[in-house]
Specification:
With about 190 residues, the protein is an alpha+beta fold. It has a domain of about 90 residues: Alpha-Beta Plaits. About 40% of the residues lie in helices and about 15% in strands. A 5-stranded antiparallel β-sheet has the order 2-3-1-4-5, with helices on both faces. Strand 2 and strand 3 form a beta hairpin. The longest helix is centred in the last third of the chain and has 20 residues.
Length: about 190
Amino acid sequence: PPKKKDIRDYNDADMARLLEQWEKDDDIEEGDLPEHKRPPAPIDFSKIDPGKPESILKLTKKGKTLMMFVTVSGDPTEKETEEITSLWQGSLFNANYDVQRFIVGSNRAIFMLRDGGYAWEIKDFLINQERCADVTLEGQVYPGKGADGNEKVKNKTKPEKAKKKKDAEKKSNSVKEDNRATNQREEL
């Protein structure tokens, strides 16, 4: 049994234990719990379309915080990016989507959603904007209306990556051949 102590003799560890005991008895509503402690929402498998993998992602992200990256086309300054993405955020707010926006570069912003289930609807809105170059959502890059033809091809296939790797290997092999010592030994 724990030894009775005078409250004036409690240290930080004793106070932490006391707080934990009090919190055990508290009835905290599910909505007030932090996201990582909330039980996951039940998934209705009847709504899943096996032909569309996005439908599975929509249901698994429902009720969870999700972030998407948005790139503004052209060569905007950070202030222009702020203004353009602010208009998009305002439009989404007017459509009752809870979106927060953070500028992370001169042409890039993060849109944070409280409910990830709406992410694909918001993505569809963003890629139809004139100044949207692309939207990155769950590792997938979706080209926007503002992307030029080269960016659209690059985002879908990314053939340059393999080509660059091969070129780098050729260069390193040629450097190795050039730096080899001769077979003859020179006696001093």
